[in-house]
Every structure is written in structure tokens, then in C-alpha cells.
Amino acid sequence: MDHWTAKLETYLDGELSASEMRDLDAHLRGCPSCAADVLSRLQTKRAVHSAGKRYRPNSEFRERIRKSIAARPERSPMRLWLGASAAVALLLIATFIAMSARQQQLQRQQTLSEIADLHVATLASANPVDVISTDRHTVKPWFQGKIPFTFSLPELQDSGFTLVGGRVMYLGQAPGAELIYQVRKHQISVFIFQGRSVGRELGKSLQSQKELSFNIENWSQDGLRYFVIGDASSDDIRNLADLLRKAQ
């Protein structure tokens, strides 16, 4: 760390060799401490540079200075410094964007993994539902007072799907509804939660995903977040999701 810190000022003044500049650029990409130090030094240099502009030399003095440096072919240290400052600023912005995207990706994957775990727990349960009924007009009212929202269930006549029942489920600390459907020999779980409680990192549009050996559809609608998951075909999962969306 001390080795790099000793070179930061020379780096900002553009006085390092090309190889040293590349090495230090690479180090800054992986060292938040040095990157923050460079940013602080840049801000100080900018403040000094801005203060220096308060003095306005007359035209005769400017001409004399211009002639004295006209023969110098090398690049101005100021240009090198400005170039270095722009590079560091872009580096910091790119690092922040990359870290934010990575964090969102991890949160998205964690949410879908937790949904898959809930579905597996239901499959393994001897009593997967608390209200047993194929009648949506029986299942939906059962949730009143048990969860802080309401939802609509679709008419399944001639759809190939059968409603088995439902129960209250929690994702983290958020209460929601789990509905169990069957299509042929496959069991499908439908999870419904308040959108402000879960799934904000997943976006609002309908998304088809694969988690473990399950197909998943998830979307946001009317302030609620829906997850449809099962080992049925992706077409079956999508068709059930379409029925649920149209019912709302």
C-alpha cells in the first residue's frame, strides 16, 4: 500500500512512465482505499486550480509567458493531470455501476432460490395446504384477515389445471399466499406477496427463469409480486401465469 501511495501525487501530475501509469491504473481498479485517496487529491488540486484563476494577468504578461514556453514540445502537466482526473472519475463511476449490478444480480438469485426452497418444502410436506378445495370462491375468502392484501383467482374450466388449495407462506418476514395447482401429474406452486416487500430487484415485467429443475414465471401486477413455479413444462407454467394475470 505504501509503495503505491508514494506514487499517487506523481501519477496525478502525469510524471510516471507509461508502464508505471498502467500498473497504477490496474491497482486503482482493485483498491478502493487508493482510489478514494486519488479522488481526494484530485479535489484538492481542483480547488487550488480554481483559486489560481482569481488572478487575471494582463495581456502583456500573458504574451511574455506564451513566448517563453512556445519552444517546449512536451505535453503540459496540466493536460496530463486533467486526463488522469477524468480517467479516475470514470473508473470510480464504472466500479460503482458494476458493484451495484452485481449486488442486484445476487439479490435476484437469492430471491428465486428462496422461492424454489419454499416449493420444495411444499412438495415434501405431508400437509401441503391449510385450506383444501377446488373452488376458488372457497379458497380466496379463507385468506382474508391472514394476509394484508387480496387477490383474484382465475376460472379454470377447460384449462387443464385444478386448484388443490392454499396456505399462508412467508418469504423472509413478508407474509403471502401459496396456492397449489395440479396439471396432469405435476404440482405447481403460485406464491403471491406484496410487491413492496419482495421482488423489487426482479423488475416489473413477466420473466421466465429456470431455478434448479423448476420452471419459474414471475411478474409484478397491481402492487403484488407473483411467482409460478413447478416441474411442469415451461408452456404449462406460462399458461397458468397468463390465467392469473387475466384474472386480476
Walk me through this protein's architecture.
This protein has 248 residues and is of the alpha+beta class. Helix content is 50%, strand content 21%. It has a 7-stranded antiparallel beta sheet, with helices on both faces. β2 and β3 form a beta hairpin. The two termini are 59 Å apart.
Radius of gyration: 31 Å
CATH level 1 class label of the largest domain: Alpha Beta
Query: Which strand order spans the largest sheet, edge to edge or round the barrel?
Result: 1-2-3-4-7-6-5
* Number of discrete helical segments: 8
CATH topology name of the largest domain: Phosphorylase Kinase, domain 1
Poorly predicted spans: none
- Percent strand equals 15-25%
List SSEs in N-to-C order. HHHHHHEHEEEEEEH
- The quaternary organization reads as single chain
Question: Mind describing the biggest β-sheet?
Answer: 7 strands, antiparallel
Portion of residues within helices: 40-55%
CATH H level, superfamily name of the largest domain? MucB/RseB, C-terminal domain
Distance between the termini: 59 Å
| Assigned CATH architecture of the largest domain | 2-Layer Sandwich
Give the tally of structural domains: 2
Number of strands: 7
Set down the secondary structure blueprint.
Layout: H1 2-5, H2 8-12, H3 18-30, H4 32-52, H5 59-69, H6 77-124, E1 131-132, H7 136-142, E2 161-171, E3 174-183, E4 186-194, E5 207-211, E6 214-221, E7 224-230, H8 234-247
Antiparallel strand pairs: 1-2, 2-3, 3-4, 4-7, 5-6, 6-7
Helix pairs in contact: 3-4, 4-6
